[in-house]
Amino acid sequence: MNQPQSPHVVVIMGVAGTGKTTIGPLLADRLGVPYAEGDDFHPEANIAKMSAGTPLTDEDRRPWLDAIGRWAHGRAGLGGVVSCSALKRSYRDRLRASAPGVVFVHLTGDRKLIEDRMAHRQGHFMPTALLDSQFATLQPLQSDEAGVAVNVAGSPEEIAERAVTALRGLDG
Question: Which of 1, 8, 124, 143 is deepest in the core (most CB within 10 A)?
Fold first, then answer.
Protein backbone atom coordinates (compact mmCIF):
# COMPACT_ATOMS: atom_id res chain seq x y z
CA MET A 1 0.00 0.00 0.00
CA ASN A 2 1.40 3.39 -0.96
CA GLN A 3 1.64 5.93 1.80
CA PRO A 4 1.51 9.69 1.23
CA GLN A 5 4.91 11.04 0.13
CA SER A 6 5.53 12.99 3.33
CA PRO A 7 4.33 12.14 6.82
CA HIS A 8 1.36 14.43 7.30
CA VAL A 9 -0.10 15.38 10.62
CA VAL A 10 -3.76 14.65 9.93
CA VAL A 11 -6.64 16.13 11.89
CA ILE A 12 -9.65 13.86 11.46
CA MET A 13 -12.64 16.18 11.82
CA GLY A 14 -16.42 16.22 11.69
CA VAL A 15 -19.52 16.42 13.81
CA ALA A 16 -20.04 14.03 16.71
CA GLY A 17 -20.92 10.54 15.58
CA THR A 18 -19.06 10.55 12.26
CA GLY A 19 -16.55 8.04 13.59
CA LYS A 20 -13.48 10.14 14.33
CA THR A 21 -12.49 7.86 17.23
CA THR A 22 -13.06 4.73 15.16
CA ILE A 23 -11.53 5.90 11.87
CA GLY A 24 -8.62 7.83 13.41
CA PRO A 25 -6.71 4.78 14.72
CA LEU A 26 -7.41 2.83 11.51
CA LEU A 27 -6.08 5.71 9.43
CA ALA A 28 -3.02 6.12 11.68
CA ASP A 29 -2.29 2.40 11.36
CA ARG A 30 -2.52 2.53 7.57
CA LEU A 31 -0.22 5.57 7.50
CA GLY A 32 2.22 4.06 10.03
CA VAL A 33 1.95 7.00 12.44
CA PRO A 34 0.67 7.44 16.02
CA TYR A 35 -2.92 8.34 16.85
CA ALA A 36 -4.08 10.79 19.53
CA GLU A 37 -7.67 10.92 20.73
CA GLY A 38 -8.82 14.54 20.67
CA ASP A 39 -11.29 14.04 23.49
CA ASP A 40 -8.34 13.29 25.79
CA PHE A 41 -7.18 16.91 25.36
CA HIS A 42 -10.43 18.36 26.79
CA PRO A 43 -10.27 19.93 30.24
CA GLU A 44 -12.62 18.25 32.76
CA ALA A 45 -14.88 21.32 32.72
CA ASN A 46 -15.54 20.82 28.99
CA ILE A 47 -16.43 17.16 29.47
CA ALA A 48 -18.79 18.06 32.33
CA LYS A 49 -20.52 20.68 30.16
CA MET A 50 -20.98 18.33 27.21
CA SER A 51 -22.12 15.49 29.48
CA ALA A 52 -24.80 17.82 30.82
CA GLY A 53 -25.96 18.55 27.25
CA THR A 54 -24.49 22.05 27.14
CA PRO A 55 -22.65 23.00 23.92
CA LEU A 56 -19.16 24.37 24.35
CA THR A 57 -18.43 28.00 23.60
CA ASP A 58 -15.50 29.22 21.54
CA GLU A 59 -13.85 30.26 24.82
CA ASP A 60 -14.28 26.72 26.17
CA ARG A 61 -12.62 25.28 23.07
CA ARG A 62 -9.50 27.49 23.05
CA PRO A 63 -7.39 25.51 25.57
CA TRP A 64 -8.51 22.26 23.93
CA LEU A 65 -7.55 23.45 20.44
CA ASP A 66 -4.23 24.80 21.73
CA ALA A 67 -3.40 21.45 23.36
CA ILE A 68 -4.18 19.61 20.12
CA GLY A 69 -2.15 22.18 18.20
CA ARG A 70 0.85 21.61 20.48
CA TRP A 71 0.60 17.84 19.90
CA ALA A 72 0.37 18.36 16.12
CA HIS A 73 3.32 20.79 16.17
CA GLY A 74 5.40 18.20 18.01
CA ARG A 75 4.60 15.64 15.28
CA ALA A 76 5.61 17.96 12.39
CA GLY A 77 7.82 16.03 9.97
CA LEU A 78 7.04 12.78 11.81
CA GLY A 79 3.35 12.44 11.02
CA GLY A 80 0.40 11.60 13.19
CA VAL A 81 -3.37 11.48 13.29
CA VAL A 82 -5.46 13.30 15.87
CA SER A 83 -9.22 13.51 16.15
CA CYS A 84 -10.78 16.94 16.64
CA SER A 85 -14.22 18.11 15.58
CA ALA A 86 -12.66 21.33 14.14
CA LEU A 87 -16.14 22.42 13.07
CA LYS A 88 -15.39 26.09 12.43
CA ARG A 89 -12.85 27.62 10.08
CA SER A 90 -11.54 29.69 13.00
CA TYR A 91 -10.81 26.45 14.93
CA ARG A 92 -8.90 25.02 11.99
CA ASP A 93 -7.04 28.32 11.58
CA ARG A 94 -6.04 28.11 15.25
CA LEU A 95 -4.75 24.55 14.73
CA ARG A 96 -2.83 25.64 11.60
CA ALA A 97 -1.30 28.54 13.54
CA SER A 98 0.24 25.99 15.93
CA ALA A 99 1.05 23.38 13.29
CA PRO A 100 1.14 24.96 9.82
CA GLY A 101 1.48 21.68 7.89
CA VAL A 102 -1.64 19.95 9.23
CA VAL A 103 -4.12 18.50 6.78
CA PHE A 104 -7.74 17.72 7.51
CA VAL A 105 -9.85 14.67 6.77
CA HIS A 106 -13.44 15.85 7.10
CA LEU A 107 -15.73 12.89 7.81
CA THR A 108 -19.08 13.71 6.25
CA GLY A 109 -22.37 11.91 5.98
CA ASP A 110 -26.11 11.85 6.09
CA ARG A 111 -27.50 13.29 9.34
CA LYS A 112 -29.83 10.32 9.84
CA LEU A 113 -26.93 7.84 9.57
CA ILE A 114 -24.80 9.88 11.99
CA GLU A 115 -27.66 10.22 14.51
CA ASP A 116 -28.27 6.46 14.35
CA ARG A 117 -24.60 5.75 15.00
CA MET A 118 -24.55 8.18 17.93
CA ALA A 119 -27.62 6.56 19.45
CA HIS A 120 -25.96 3.13 19.40
CA ARG A 121 -22.52 3.99 20.78
CA GLN A 122 -21.77 3.31 24.39
CA GLY A 123 -19.65 5.07 26.98
CA HIS A 124 -19.38 8.45 25.25
CA PHE A 125 -20.12 11.73 27.00
CA MET A 126 -21.62 13.50 23.94
CA PRO A 127 -25.42 13.14 23.92
CA THR A 128 -27.40 12.85 20.68
CA ALA A 129 -29.23 16.03 21.71
CA LEU A 130 -26.14 18.09 20.82
CA LEU A 131 -26.03 16.87 17.20
CA ASP A 132 -28.18 19.77 15.97
CA SER A 133 -25.77 22.28 17.51
CA GLN A 134 -22.86 20.45 15.88
CA PHE A 135 -24.44 20.69 12.41
CA ALA A 136 -25.39 24.34 13.03
CA THR A 137 -21.76 25.13 13.90
CA LEU A 138 -20.16 23.12 11.07
CA GLN A 139 -18.30 25.11 8.43
CA PRO A 140 -17.05 22.58 5.84
CA LEU A 141 -13.49 22.75 4.56
CA GLN A 142 -12.92 25.57 2.10
CA SER A 143 -10.99 25.25 -1.16
CA ASP A 144 -7.97 27.05 0.33
CA GLU A 145 -7.68 24.58 3.25
CA ALA A 146 -5.43 21.53 2.91
CA GLY A 147 -7.71 18.59 3.33
CA VAL A 148 -10.23 16.16 1.93
CA ALA A 149 -13.84 15.20 2.61
CA VAL A 150 -14.58 11.51 3.11
CA ASN A 151 -18.08 10.05 3.31
CA VAL A 152 -18.78 7.88 6.35
CA ALA A 153 -21.10 5.40 4.65
CA GLY A 154 -19.79 1.83 4.80
CA SER A 155 -17.55 -0.06 7.17
CA PRO A 156 -14.80 1.61 9.19
CA GLU A 157 -12.19 -0.19 7.04
CA GLU A 158 -13.78 1.15 3.84
CA ILE A 159 -13.90 4.68 5.24
CA ALA A 160 -10.24 4.53 6.36
CA GLU A 161 -9.19 3.25 2.94
CA ARG A 162 -11.09 6.10 1.23
CA ALA A 163 -9.28 8.54 3.52
CA VAL A 164 -5.85 7.07 2.62
CA THR A 165 -6.70 7.28 -1.08
CA ALA A 166 -7.90 10.87 -0.72
CA LEU A 167 -4.75 11.85 1.19
CA ARG A 168 -2.61 10.36 -1.56
CA GLY A 169 -4.34 12.78 -3.91
CA LEU A 170 -2.97 15.69 -1.86
CA ASP A 171 0.57 14.53 -2.62
CA GLY A 172 0.01 13.96 -6.33
Answer: 8
